[in-house]
Structures are given as C-alpha cells and as structure tokens.
C-alpha cells in the first residue's frame, strides 16, 4: 500500500524513490469557480509560497526551461527583436517569463538591470476564479495554490479580464486557459516547483509561506545594509496577499519591474460584474417573466370584438365607396 | 392614382374583403423576423449560461460549455445582420409621430385594453416603436462590446481594462434586451390576433381597425384607388392570396 506524500517544505529536496499517493485531494479545495457552495475542506494544508528574490536573479532562464520541461509545453521559436525576453510575452505554452527592464536610477544616475520572473501570483483572492463562469474550471487549494482544471475550462477568456496581473493566456487550438500551476502536480507529491528546483542562484525558493516571509525579511535587511533603503517584500494585500512573492530592491516602485502593478486588486468593474449586481439582474429577469405571466393570467386579454370586426367592414366599405377626387371612376367600378 | 404610403410599408394591403383580412408582413420580412427571433433565443439562453453560474447548465442545450462558447458570438453576428435586415425594412414607420405622445400619456388605457380612448395609429404604436429602437440601440451596444470580448478572434483588440468595462456593458445591455424581448413576446400574445401577422402574414380587419386604424384606412384608400384591374377584383373575396 502506498502512503500519502508529505507536504512539500522546500524545492531543494530530491524526490523519494518509492511511489507516493497524491497529497492534494479534491477535499483540499477551498474555492471553486462558479460554485456557490463549496463543501468545507476537511483539513487545512500548510500555506505555501514561492519567493522570488529579484536581487539574486542572473537572468539565466533556467526557470523557463524547467517550466517548459516539467509541463511539457512547446513554445514556438520566435524571432529576436533585440531584447532578452524570449518568448515576447507569456503564452499558453510559456507559463513563466523573465522580463528584463533597464532602469536609470535617478538618485545614483546608474543604469539598473531589473529582471523579474513573471507568471501567476497565486492570489489569496484570485480575480480569475472570481470572473470564471465555468463551474470547476478554476480551484484554489487550502495551501493557496490556484489551479486551472482544463477539463472544465471553456476557453471564454473571462479569467484574462479578471486577473489583475495579466497572466492567463488562452490556448489557440486547445481553447483552454493556461498559466503557472505552481507545479501543483509536484506539490502533490511533496516536491517544490520545477522553476525553484532549477534556479542556480536560489533566487527562487519555495516552502511554507511563513518561512518564506521570514527568509524575505532576512534578505530585505541584507539589501538595506547594502544601500537599498526601499528594499521590501511584494506580497500585495489588495488581493489578500499572494503565494508567489518578490523581494524587490525598490519595493516602493514595483512598476519599474516591467509593469508589476503597484497596488493590484480585482478591478471594481469585475466586482460589479460578478458581485451582487449579477444576482439583482437575475432577480429582475425572473420578475419580468413572473410579472408577464401573472398579467397574462389575471388581466383580460386585449381581444378584438365581433363588433369591431363589423365596424372594420363598415369603415372599409365607406372608404371604398366614398368618392375620391382622383379616382372616382375606379371607386365607382369597385361597387 | 393610388396615394403615397405614409403609414404603411411596401407589401401592406387589403388581402381579402370577405372575410376582411389585411396583409401586414410579406414572406421575406417574416422569414427575416423568425431568423432574428431564433438567434435571439439561442443568444439569450447561451448568454444566460455565462451570466450566472446557476444557469450554466443551459450550456447542455448546445452540447457543452466549449460549444456554447464558440456558438454564442457567431450567432450574435448572424443576429446583427439579420436584425439589420429588419431595421432597413422598418425604421421609417418607426419614426416618432405626433400621436405617439398621446398614446404614451394614456398608457393606463393601453394596459387596460381601452383602445377606444387611444388615438388612431399608423402601422406601429409607441410601444412597438420603443421595442424597435430599444432593440436597435441595444444590439449595436451588444455587437460592439461583444466583439471586444470575443477571445477567439479578437483577443487583443482592446486593452484589458476596456474589456472589463465591455463585459459589464454587454451583460447590462443583454439584460435590457431580455426585458424588451419579454415585453415584445408578451404583447404579441396578450394582444390577441397579433401572431398571425408573423405566421400567415395577415391580420383580421377588426384587428387592424382596433389597433392601427390609420394604417388600415390608408390601405383601404389605396385599395379603392387601385387601377381598374384591382378595383374590379375588389368585388370578390380573397383577391390576392399569398
């Protein structure tokens, strides 16, 4: 009999050799898209997080390669357009992307090369899940992982509109939405994400969110000692915090890192679209149906009486017989 | 000489005298109408599936979520062009007239069915005109906002913030069109004798007299003034069966 895999604590450990059962069970789901009543999870998994220390990144793209390999995606070979980014953007086959920004620090007048590993942030309050119309296409586990279940996905692109980070991409031929899964299939068997495992500088680390925050605090302190006064952790509270966090040397200006949102939150438009307004609309539509049905049953129908049919005949006769100025002859003939 | 049409559309005419029946919609218009209606029903049902999770099961009618996802916008485009056909045929007689004001002010009599208190009307009353212009406007809004959020063919036509606004606008406009749809269907059922205008193409003389007397009178005068051939035939019943 196989045993359940342990919860993953780090990306560095090697996988065990004996077969293990998945430790990420259907009962570990705490949110399901387009589903009002999710059965309460039977246990609370340790909240996990991936920490990306931007100050340690050397831009080698090992994480991208590991992501492609583990997820067995096949990003198209693109053209070099003069920058290091490759492919040009996140795609349905590229769940993570090194973004390279050249930024001139106005205080030091020095050029800084800011490299950020872009991808799904695994929001505590996921905008994609909120906007998804397909039941079960997006789930959130109690460890914080937000996962797309392609079998239930209809490819409508609502998650693209819901995401505050512009992450999901719709696959052109499979017609399903794709993004980083935080390697939920590796986490399920006690392993950390492929990108974290491959990172040669340990810029990407993985583990319980609390431990990752503690590690981030150490790193921030170190950066501050080295003169980065505004160094800090990016764990945006507008989306309830994220399960992918950054250590930034300029945490006061996230947007200089290739447009990382300064204060991401689910757009009020998405909230309005998916919030109580929806229920109100549904009720109004129901009331219109009911109202017309009731009027139909209780109000007397608008009927043409026998008398009116006769009046119509009379009026018609009168008109046909009245002497018209221009066509008197034909009027006569009609009689 | 037959008088110029003011309150009637080409094809409208007195169809027969005994019984008195009036021709209201020709075959092309009827086919055009039913195509539009069919599209509208498919769109409302499939759109409702995306509108609220409790209605997602409606995707089953179309063969699942994926099918519904591609079907909905295609039918939307079909409806747009189909409705455009109706628009071109009907816009002129739906322009506001003086009597529409009085009719609207006496909406209580309309709902009670006291039509003897209402002014004589052309082919359309103010309510019907409201349906016409309301649908025309909403369908424009729906096609524009719909293309903006058509992921399959126009994934990056507009920015994500614009798309967020477009989905809200699309949902609101769709809800508005549902209300108009309900009002339109309900009025057609409640006002007995109306549906045959879109099935057979004709209504009874009494119906025309009660609801659209100006239209009816114009058609009667045109009948009277028709050239001799028509005038001679006017003696017999069922002059021009269609």
What's the structural blueprint in terms of helices and strands?
The complex is a heterodimer of chains A (335) and B (242).
Chain A: E1 3-4, E2 20-21, E3 29-32, E4 48-53, H1 62-71, E5 97-105, E6 110-118, H2 127-131, E7 138-141, E8 146-148, H3 158-162, E9 169-170, E10 177-178, H4 184-187, H5 194-198, E11 204-208, H6 209-225, E12 232-234, E13 244-248, H7 268-274, H8 276-298, H9 306-321, H10 328-334
Parallel strand pairs in A: 1-2, 4-13
Antiparallel strand pairs in A: 3-7, 4-11, 5-6, 7-8, 9-10, 12-13
Chain B: E1 13-17, E2 20-23, H1 27-51, H2 65-90, H3 98-105, H4 107-112, H5 126-148, H6 160-190, H7 196-199, E3 202-204, H8 205-211, H9 213-225, H10 228-233
Antiparallel strand pairs in B: 1-2, 2-3
Helix pairs in contact in B: 1-2, 1-6, 2-5, 5-6, 8-9
Structure description:
The complex is a heterodimer of chains A (335) and B (242). Chain A is of the alpha+beta class. Chain A has 2 domains: 3-266, Alpha-Beta Plaits, CATH 3.30.70; 278-334, no CATH class. Chain A is built from 10 helices and 13 strands. In chain A, strands 11-4-13-12 form a 4-stranded mixed beta sheet. In chain A, strands 3-7-8 form a 3-stranded antiparallel beta sheet, with no helix packed on it. In chain A, a hairpin with a 4-residue loop joins strand 5 (97-105) and strand 6. Chain A is elongated, with a radius of gyration of 31 Å. Chain B is mainly α and 242 residues long. Helix content of chain B is 62%, strand content 5%. Chain B contains 10 helices and 3 strands. In chain B, strands 1-2-3 form a 3-stranded antiparallel beta sheet. In chain B, a hairpin with a 2-residue loop joins strand 1 and strand 2 (20-23). The longest helix of chain B is centred in the last third of the chain and has 31 residues, at 160-190. Chain B is elongated. Chain B starts with 12 loop residues before the first strand and ends in a 9-residue tail after the last helix. The relative contact order of chain B is 0.17. The model of chain B is unreliable at 230-242 (pLDDT under 50). Chains A and B meet through helix 3, helix 7, helix 8, helix 9 and helix 10 of A and helix 1, helix 2, helix 6, helix 8 and helix 9 of B.
């Amino acid at each position: 009999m196989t045993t359940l895999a342990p919860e993953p604590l780090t990306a560095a450990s090697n996988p065990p050799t004996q077969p293990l059962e998945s430790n990420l069970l259907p009962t570990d789901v705490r949110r399901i898209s387009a589903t009002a009543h999710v059965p309460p999870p039977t246990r609370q998994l340790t909240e996990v997080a991936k920490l990306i220390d931007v100050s340690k990144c050397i831009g080698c793209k090992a994480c991208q390669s590991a992501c492609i390999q583990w997820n067995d995606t096949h990003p198209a070979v693109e053209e070099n357009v003069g920058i290091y980014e490759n492919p040009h953007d996140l795609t349905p086959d590229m769940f993570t992307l090194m973004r390279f920004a050249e930024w001139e620090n106005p205080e030091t007048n020095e050029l800084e090369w800011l490299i950020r590993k872009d991808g799904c942030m695994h929001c505590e309050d996921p905008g994609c899940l909120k906007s998804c119309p397909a039941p079960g296409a997006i789930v959130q586990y109690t460890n914080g992982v937000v996962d797309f279940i392609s079998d239930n996905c209809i490819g409508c692109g609502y998650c693209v509109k819901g995401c505050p980070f512009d992450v999901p991409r719709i696959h052109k031929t499979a017609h399903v939405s794709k993004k980083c899964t935080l390697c939920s299939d590796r986490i399920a068997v006690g392993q950390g994400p492929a990108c974290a495992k491959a990172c040669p500088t340990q810029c990407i680390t993985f583990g319980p969110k609390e431990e990752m925050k503690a590690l981030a605090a150490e790193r921030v302190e170190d950066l501050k000692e080295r003169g980065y006064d505004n160094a800090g952790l990016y764990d945006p509270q507008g989306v309830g915090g994220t399960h992918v966090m950054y250590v930034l040397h300029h945490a006061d200006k996230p947007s200089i890192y290739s447009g990382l949102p300064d204060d991401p939150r689910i757009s009020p438009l998405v909230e309005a679209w998916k919030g109580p307004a929806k229920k109100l609309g549904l009720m109004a539509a129901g009331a219109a149906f009911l109202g017309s049905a009731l009027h139909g049953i209780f109000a007397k129908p608008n009927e043409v009486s026998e008398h009116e049919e006769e009046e119509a005949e009379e009026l018609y006769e009168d008109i046909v017989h009245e002497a018209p100025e221009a066509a008197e002859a034909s009027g006569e003939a009609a009689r | 000489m037959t008088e110029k049409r003011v309150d009637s559309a080409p094809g409208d005419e007195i169809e027969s005298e005994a019984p008195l029946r009036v021709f209201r919609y020709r075959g092309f218009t009827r086919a055009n109408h039913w195509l539009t209606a069919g599209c509208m029903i498919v769109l409302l049902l499939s759109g409702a599936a995306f509108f609220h999770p409790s209605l997602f099961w409606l995707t089953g009618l179309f063969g699942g979520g994926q099918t519904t996802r591609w079907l909905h916008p295609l039918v939307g485009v079909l409806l747009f062009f189909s409705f455009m056909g109706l628009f071109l045929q009907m816009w002129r007689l739906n322009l506001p007239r003086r009597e529409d004001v009085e009719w609207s002010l006496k909406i209580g009599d309309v709902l009670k069915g006291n039509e003897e208190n209402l002014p004589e009307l052309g082919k359309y009353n103010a309510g019907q005109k409201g349906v016409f212009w309301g649908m025309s406007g909403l369908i424009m809004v729906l096609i524009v906002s719909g293309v903006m959020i058509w992921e399959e063919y126009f994934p990056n036509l507009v920015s994500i913030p614009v798309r967020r606004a477009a989905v809200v606008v699309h949902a609101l406009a769709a809800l508005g069109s549902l209300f108009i749809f309900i009002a339109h269907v309900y009025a057609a059922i409640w006002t007995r004798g109306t549906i045959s205008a879109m099935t057979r193409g004709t209504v009874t003389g009494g119906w025309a007299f009660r609801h659209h007397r100006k239209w009816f009178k114009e058609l009667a005068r045109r009948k009277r003034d028709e050239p001799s051939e028509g005038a001679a035939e006017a003696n017999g019943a069922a002059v021009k069966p269609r």
